[in-house]
Amino acid sequence: MKTNNSANTYSNDGLFYEILVRIFTTLSVVDLAVASMVCKSWNLASRAPQLWSKLDISTLNSRGLNVPLRPYAWRDDHSSQKMTQFLKYASSLSGGNISCIIFNCYVYLRDVHLISIAERTPNLKRLVFPVSGDISKNGIETAMRSWRGLESITITSVVHHINFFDAVRKYCMDIISLKITCRFEQYEARALVNYTPNLKVLSIRNMTVNMGGLCHVLNNLEHLEVVNLSHSLIVDKLDDELQQYSVDDVQSRVNNSCKLITCQIRTCLWCKTPFARNPRRMPHGTLEDIWRDDEIRSLSH
Question: Which fold has domain 49-265?
Answer without folding.
Answer: 3.80.10
